Amino acid sequence: MRSTRMSAARARGRRRTVLAATGLVAALALTATACGGSGEDEASHKPDAAASRAADGNGGGKVTLPSDLADRLEEHGIDVDKWKDGGWKDWDRDKWLSEAQDFVNPVIEGLWEPERMRSAEEADKTVTTKDASAAQGLSEPEPVPVRAEAEKTPYHDNAAPVGKVFFDSPEGPAVCSGTVVKDVNHPGKSNLVWTAGHCVHAGGNGGWYRNLVFVPAYNDLGRSEAELGSASASEIAPYGNWWADWASTSNGWIQGGSESGGAGAAYDYAVLHVKPEQGGKSLEETVGAALDVDFSAPSAAAAGQMGAWGYPAAPPYNGLQMFKCLDAPGRFSLSADLPSMYRIGCTMTGGSSGGGWFRVLDGETVLVSNTSIGPTDNTWLAGPRLGEDAEAVYQNMSRTYGGR
């Protein structure tokens, strides 16, 4: 791959050549109308170690819980009545357990209204200069920054599988990006969304986030903040809100994830199983698109051109529009004892976390990684290589919860 830094002009020329050869943008657009790990890190794939069952909301900030979920809350010392009456909004930092069975995510109708969505802060993982330079001998030279390009509107015609992931953290409403992916065990009827581990779980020093919801093709027409005040619900969420009733991430992220990504960055991926806030068909049927996931974990040199899509929310962006970066990846590593990651030049900021990275494989666009970490100057992004560990998380989600 890169042995020296290229000039910006040379890089742009090379990117145009490779892009023309792969047709990455064209392939991704077609999906709107068509329907590695270390081996030592095992997925969090036990039924009680990966997820929660959602309950139906009854509006007004209250929820109705099925008996099995109420029993689980009681087992953790939670007063169910208080929890239903608004206790779900309270975070006790001392009791914010990191055990996977403590992730509960009942549907609360009306919680994610447009104004609350716009208030969500980016959930970025910023790598310090010290961290990024610690393994210079293991990483290829830093890539030339690639200026993020706005996706064409309407998004449902150009990048329908891409959307935003909203959730509540102890610090308040937060946002990431995500992608609708196919469910190999339930063809044509997938309810699976791929995102980053740090968009569902805080890592080694915390627990699961709450009120996770996925909004595909958010702000479909790419309207400005001023224009969104008069936008219709169908323009903001053309396919509605999809609540995560189950979630899985890797043990590598749960145990090693940190504010800067840390040892968990190479395992920073997650899968959500979602359902609509109000009835209906599967996510894939509703959106009309879903992408396969490539778990072959190709080396950076063999991966070819990649494109990263997402909704950057930190300045100079505001999280309202979808952007993309296209580049040939290089190898990036934070430590000799961690798997290497992919790194591309890209100016997208926090909020793009969890957004899918795509490449063309055998003529089809597939998801090959997701945005995990980036530097403070927002010149590049890094994402994990998806190998056996990532496939174990995916397969367990599909087999155990996919048909529900």
Automatic annotation (TrEMBL):
This is Secreted protein. The lineage of its organism: Bacteria, Bacillati, Actinomycetota, Actinomycetes, Kitasatosporales. Residues 1-34 form the signal peptide. PROSITE patterns: PROKAR_LIPOPROTEIN. Residues 36-66, 119-144 are annotated as: Disordered. InterPro entries: Glutamyl_endopeptidase, Peptidase_S1_PA, Peptidase_S1_PA_chymotrypsin. Keywords: Signal. SUPFAM superfamilies: Trypsin-like serine proteases. It comes from Streptomyces toyocaensis. Residues 119-128 have a biased composition (Basic and acidic residues).
